[in-house]
Amino acid sequence: MFILNSIILFLLLLFLFSFSKSFFWVLVNARIDLEHINM
After folding, report:
1. Whole-angstrom Cα distance, residue 20 to residue 34?
2. HEC profile for the chain?
3. Angstrom distance (rounded) from CA 28 to CA 34
């Protein structure tokens, strides 16, 4: 039971990490687009 909980927790952390990474890239790309528009 403990092993199952730790596996679920690990998968959840992995999902959050990948989601935050993609969200970070979206923010970076949006900032670059805004800079291009300002130029």
Report:
1. 21
2. CHHHHHHHHHHHHHHHHHHHHHHHHHHHHHHHHHHHHHC
3. 10
- Whether the model pTM is above 0.85: no
The residue written with tokens 């969200």 in the block is: 23
Domain boundaries, the chain: 1-39
pLDDT tens series, the chain, 39 aa:
789 999 999 999 999 999 999 999 999 998 888 788 776
